[in-house]
Amino acid sequence: AYVLGSLAFEATTAGRLGDARAIRDATWDLARQRAAPRTRAWAAALSSELFARDGDEAASRRSLDDGFAAIGQTRDEPSWKGVGWFDETRLIAYEGGNLVLLGQYPGAVGALRTALGQLAPDRLKHRCTLSTDLATALVKQGEVEESCALAHDALSLATAISHRESVERVRRVRFQLLRWRAHPAVRELSERLDAA
After folding, report:
1. What pLDDT, in 10s, does the model give residues 33-48?
2. Quick one: which H or E segment has residue 11?
3. Residues 9, 124, 120: CA angle, nearest 5 degrees
4. Among candidate residues 92, 81, 82, 97, the one with its CA nearest the CA of residue 129
């Protein structure tokens, strides 16, 4: 289930959306029937993001609900066969990211702030992703300075872990900030990105 889910995300990134949908559905079918609760929660979260990318809010929410139900069962069965760690904080992060994808920025800000506040400091890649998602939601609401501060934090983390995809996420935040290009915080972020 974990490998299939990873392939679904890879297909999405590559623009093979039909493949991504088919693999997403196969991932959930397998996870629902055979996986441990934590893996089911992860598969549901992945499905929720892919539905949100498709603009299907109702299916995204149903998948997240499945994820929260599954994560509630991990007290009795804590095993996990994926990379890193997956827990309720990550589910909340998915919820916030999905709301960004769906254009529901106030709700996204609340969920992302909650997840960022609960995330362990050593989870650098996830902290980076959460910071860029929160920066995106804030810039959509015209919160330039906080968005830039979060983008700076994310860029520092991305360069510390040498994660190119995370640097590109910060570039996308900067692109959204270009209408405020004269703002000192935006200029500073642009200079740091050019040097990255």
Report:
1. 999 999 999 999 999 9
2. helix 2-13
3. 110
4. 97
